Amino acid sequence: MIKTLLAIFVLLPFIINAQKIVDNSGENKVFEKIEIEADFPGGTAKWKEFVRNNFDFSRIEKGLSDSVASFSDTATIRFVIDRNGIISNFTFQNVISKVFKESCIQLFKDSPHWRPAIQCGRYVSAYKTQTFIVQIDKSTGKKSVFVREI
Whose CA, among 19, 61, 76, 104, lies 20 to 30 Å from 148? Predict the structure, then answer.
């Protein structure tokens, strides 16, 4: 009897550890901090190039009255990149013009899928925050957009 009890106590930790608990509750979780950040294919430089080449200034210009000579605004946007690289759930963290918001959202919708974040060797959904600064000078025709990751 003592040998049986001793064998149970010796083998019990191995038996318990042999059972793996699978936790799928994180499948739909959106991570705030992750091991490898989600990013645009080609990295930050390619994203900035994409923004410069594809940002729609015309939507903003149409919304400006004739008396406005120049326009400048900043948008800080928090969004989700899901585990398939699709961008959604836009939250603007500051008050900006409606047409600027629409231009920013359209830019993300026009972009290719991003590389998703990685946590524990798996693709996961994660938050990302970026700031966009747009400047339009009607008198010179100069238009610029800058993007910065936070």
Answer: 61
- DSSP 3-state of 19: coil
pLDDT of residue 2: 64
Q: CA distances (Å), 147 to each of 4, 99, 107, 119, in order? A: 68, 17, 12, 26
Mean pLDDT score across all residues of the chain: 85
Tokens of 122: 């798996």
Amino acid identity of residue 82, one-letter, is D
82 within 8 A of 88, measured Cβ to Cβ:
yes
Amino acid identity of residue 62, one-letter, is K
Per DSSP (E only), the strands in the chain are: 30-31, 70-81, 87-92, 117-119, 122-137, 142-149
